[in-house]
């Protein structure tokens, strides 16, 4: 039941991100005196470990206006996967990472039934957290 609630909440969150991202692009295009973009590429170590979680997260980032997943570094048994995200409109790397980690927490709440309390370092830690042998 909680996954359904988190799923509906995540879909609403993504729709809101699409609407506000589109509004940001339009406002930066047509309002005089504002710098259009501050492009940067940020490295995002993930708490997502399964292929489904990584794929959903990368798709969510790419569907949001102003962000794009440029590359994915596969995870190993000792290191989590890493995304390289091109962000256009964030003021700093910290603010870009903050928004991406918020999105990831909401996604993990949907896929796992609850938000993670901390970043998992290995696939084994995630499996133990989920109660898998």
From TrEMBL:
It is a multi-pass membrane protein. It is found in: Cell membrane. InterPro entries: Cation_antiport_E. Its main location: membrane. The keyword Transmembrane helix applies. Keywords: Cell membrane, Membrane, Transmembrane, Transmembrane helix. It holds the Pfam family MNHE. The chain crosses the membrane at residues 12-31. Belongs to the CPA3 antiporters (TC 2.A.63) subunit E family. This is Multicomponent Na+:H+ antiporter subunit E.
